[in-house]
Amino acid sequence: MMIFVPKEADSAETRVPLVPGTVAKLAKKGAEITVEAGMGLACGFADAAYEEAGAKVSGDRAVLLGQADVVLRLGKPPQDEVSKLKKGAVHISYLDPFHEVALVDALVQCGVSAICMEMIPRTTLAQKMDALSSQANLAGYVGVILGAQHLSQVLPMMMTPSGTLKPAHVFVIGVGVAGLQAIATAKRLGARVSAFDTRPVVEEQVQSLGAKFVKIDLGETGQTKDGYAVELTEEQKQKQREAMAKVVAQSDLVITTAQIFGKKAPLIVTEEMVKSMREGSVIVDLAAETGGNVAGSQAGEAVDVDGVTVLGAKNYPGRVRKHASEMYSANLGNLLDHFWDEEGKILKLDLEDEIMDGCLIVHEGAIRSEMILKARENQ
Known about the structure:
With 379 residues, the protein is an alpha/beta fold. It has two domains: 2-119 and 324-367, Rossmann fold (3-Layer(aba) Sandwich); 133-314, 3-Layer(aba) Sandwich (Rossmann fold), CATH 3.40.50. Helix content is 34%, strand content 18%. It is built from 13 helices and 19 strands. The strands form four sheets. An eight-stranded mixed sheet has the order 3-2-1-4-5-6-18-19, with helices on both faces. It is globular. The protein starts with a strand and ends with a helix.
């Protein structure tokens, strides 16, 4: 089985899908791996490092796309390259399937099997393959670091000859993987941290990190079987905003992480709430790329609102590209290892397996994900 790893199509992407360490592990299993020349340079990995790990290096991208049994990427493929893939090939990457309708349709039409990294089930067994979690973890860390850089004060309490500096108040909204890392990072930097999530079940996790859990009675809430927050009703959203307004106004740094899988991120921090914050305060919107939790936030931009800086996150994991690449590469490697057929030296698409059933969204000329099909019906 031949695995091909092309360079990322997005020239702004600093992460790479496969690092030499993972190549070496796959090569030992008998996989034939070819990487496009220069694929790892964005992250500091020279072609020679991949060759030493057991891969071939080639600059013939178009030919290799047509020959490969498995194509590994990080970002979604350009649509004009899908037709170059061999029929029956397996393509593995982020795909944004709920929004990239034409791309998914192209994969169907070309007879390519597509594994979507966003659709890896959030189960204990699949944790080591869960790219959304591995990258969100880093995004939570980077969000705090960048927020602290823009803040007009230090995070920790400092007792100096000139007087005592009070610790900054950090408020984290949304306690998923990114939120928990944001809490932990802010606490390590000495801030006073509070957090809120619509799922009361996470209160213990927040407290275990030394933060205060802000309780807001929203009535019946919950989470999906994969651990995602269930979308609130409009009445609940309004109640949440009203209760949260006081905490936001008293905060120096607010970090929002609330996202609903497959849907636009909910608006949580209104324009009025932004303007209620003290001059020099900062809001980091980690959901900016999926619609934004904060009024006026723009992905990749720092917006000034009456002296409050609103940072819209854009590829925050890419700001720590080495570790982000290592983690994503490990996710891919663990996925291939889990479904590796030792006897045939091939990737086995075991449709009876819970993990494969969740992430294999296109197979044998059809969309097989009920979640995606249902979302299309509701569009």
